[in-house]
Queue: 4 jobs
Job 1
Amino acid sequence: MTASTTAPTTGPTTGPTTGPATAGKLAEMASALAADPSDWLWRVRLNPDGRWYERLHQDEDYEVWLISWLPGQSTGLHDHGGSRGAFAVALGELEEDDLGGTRHVGTGQTRAFGPDYIHDVRNTSTAPAVSVHVYSPPLSVMNRYERTDSGLKLLAEERAEQW
């Protein structure tokens, strides 16, 4: 992924007030932010070398990321290190594989998940996509996996300081 060099610490006022938020609350936040592109559209960049992302907000309870995807770009199979999360597609369409199946996630649709969730998100369309992601507590680690005949194999652990 390609990170933006700016990372504002101010953000939405719709977030939780104390402690980790529920996946449902995170989905509401992601959906509301995705539905109002006037707050973030000017930030979006497209990068042919990898997904572009920028943290829009971070505090002790949650964080918000904006991600752009060109056709063919993917997260790879990963978890969120024990954080709950949600993402909403603001523009375009994405595909999500959560080990139990694959689903299309189009503009205006939101997916929420708990702390043990593993998935791969990718742009299989022919057009760019933009999504808003919200995590609580903020991500500290993400584990990357590979599917094998005997199950999941841990490939790497990424820590927050690497993003």
Note: The domain at 19-162 is CATH 2.60.120.10 (Jelly Rolls).
Job 2
Amino acid sequence: MSRFSSTREQAFVYALSSAAVAFSVARACATGSLFACSCGATPREPPDGNFKWGGCGDNVKYGLQFGKAWADAASAPVAVGEKF
């Protein structure tokens, strides 16, 4: 059992923080700022009209994976002397 009790407000801030991390990482992947990821996948079906896909999309899939790992890291036990 945790020594701290959680509140709805803490859960909201935690979820918002995780979403911000996921968004920032997804955007950083698209700009080439991170070496661990690249552009997001292009759509399978092009949208209607004269739209032509170009450029580099945000890598939302990688951003969500990273955000989840970041959010879960706070609750993972860390052994004494273990590096992050």
Note: Residues 8-31 form the longest helix (24 residues).
Job 3
Amino acid sequence: MAETEVVDNHLEERYGRAKTGRLDKRVLTALAGVFAVVLIAWVAWAGLNGDNGTLEFRNIGYSIDDEANVDITFDVTVVPNTPVACALQSLSESYGVVGYKVVVVEPSDQRTRQFTETLRTISEPTTGVVERCWTLENDQA
């Protein structure tokens, strides 16, 4: 009988029927549980934070008035009552900056607002865009 037991143990170890499989299932179950808890915590945290701190801008369009002016239309989306500044620029045909201006968007109760600003240029512009926007501290507005 001892010989049969040795052969059976050898076959079980060789083909994966060892008794350690039960322990592996426990470890995998525990890891899956930890992963599920972390995933649920992250989803709850992301849902509670939402996008309250986001600042977004979108170029709507531009209109070249003459050789020295371009009107730039853009949207700003930000948490209500947050002061924002945006850098506007106009480019030439060779992509050189021919106009630059920082405008302050005063705080408002509205989350998304649209603006049109006139930008003076030093030579004929071919485009006008918002380069970037950032939030201001309350004393900077």
Note: The chain has a mean pLDDT of 84.
Job 4
Amino acid sequence: MGHTTEIKAAGKAAAAGWDELSIYFRWWVKKTCIEKKTAFIDLLCAVPLQQIYGCPLGGIGGGTITRGWRGEFCRWQLNPGLYHYETVIANQFTVCLRCKGQTIYQQVLSMERPSSLQGWNWGYCGHYAFYHALYPRAWLVYELPGQQVVLTCRQVSPVIPHDYKVRR
């Protein structure tokens, strides 16, 4: 008698699941095919994750920008749920060291070597960069070869609204 009750309960749960799935599918067709918009929760055309994403920069519900472990800005969302998975190659940090008005070192802090923006000094050696993340904080440490300079780029993603002070 207990086994029959379990089978009936499982059947009801499966029927409820199919109902929810059909509601989602109708919403997805309306959003993507009729309204020609991107579905903010797209289970049918999910973007596969890559092992480049680091700790996001931003607050809950306020949009985020994600820096990858190589230093690039590789994902962002300004509308909740609508993510853009692309790297804008011009969005980079650059360091310039000067001594007595003369540039002695200039480097884009990215390991990329794009075909565009050829006037920039690309191709930072990844052996001199170290990514660390412990949410809600992340930091990249750059050692500048031959310069005896170490740069640390820190970020904090506040979980509590307006709590931007970095505590150590």
Note: Residues 1-46 form one domain.
